[in-house]
Write a structure and sequence with these properties.
The protein has twelve helices and 15 strands. By secondary structure, the protein is α/β, with parallel strands linked by helices. The protein folds into three domains: 82 residues, Arc Repressor Mutant, subunit A, CATH 1.10.10; 113 residues, Periplasmic binding protein-like II (D-Maltodextrin-Binding Protein, domain 2, 3-Layer(aba) Sandwich); 102 residues, D-Maltodextrin-Binding Protein, domain 2. Strand 3, helix 5 and strand 4 form a beta-alpha-beta unit. The radius of gyration is 32 Å and the shape is rod-shaped.
Amino acid sequence: MDLRRLRTFVTVAEQGSVSKAALCLHISQPGLSRQIQELQHELGLRLFERIGRRLVLTAEGEQLLVSSRTILSDVSSFAEQAQLLKRGDTGTLRVAASPIQIESTLSTFLPRYAERYPGVKVTLVESAGVATLAMLERGEIHLGIGLVDTAQAEDRQLAISPVRPLELMAACHPSFPLARGDDLDITQVISHPLLVSDSSFAARRTFETICRLAKVTPNILLESRAHHTNLALAEAGLGVAIISSTVQTHRYRLRTLCITHKRKPITEPLAVVWDKRRALPRYARDFCDLLAAHMRKLFPLPRPRAKEAAVGPRKAGK
């Protein structure tokens, strides 16, 4: 079906004559008449009857006029949508992140992103580690936020956009007997009752790795999958919670300290990853840059420590 013929048919029906329709469409009258004849031949129907100097729709023509207008309207909407997509400021963005990242970062970032890209619908998926990488490979999500090994990402054909690195932190009641200051060496932490997440969390695995490097054995009071459980017990003065720097602690009366090893903070590189075999629209590329800027503002790294940060084991995780 030639859309030009449909447009000509609708215009002739609205104008009531070939001459007026030809002026509206900026084509010759013979050319317009030929298009109408070709459309009637294609459909096998007579669309107009001539009454005096006017062309009047047949009964079949009246019914097809409604459908023709609907088709042309849909085509126009389709073209407008394509132009919006071409500009890169409208569409759908599926993002996978761990519950911690969603609570601590995306909950405040997404409203600001929506102000920048009101035409983009962001869908969140709770996921972490290798599950996120698998979803990227299957094309189920556009972006994943997590801790990803650089070599592993290369093997999986993934691109990486680093955001603010995570630090390993200790949280305790202000009166808990820990050394004063903002930093605490791993050897000063392990003798206290510790409240830790289970091994599915990257912060726990990093903590265990540093303990092995320091050749110390931690005194673990509780393993929990719920950070709020550990924070509540720490607030009650029952121990020290080992957490990532992105875990929300503002609802609790707690003192937080950076855990160090050999005077260096223990960090993990957090990144936004995507399948580099698939082209990202502009709004998805901007998502990475805007998120990195938001996290730097939300979780600023102290300058003296940032220059000499010790990077922890880079394994996929929460």
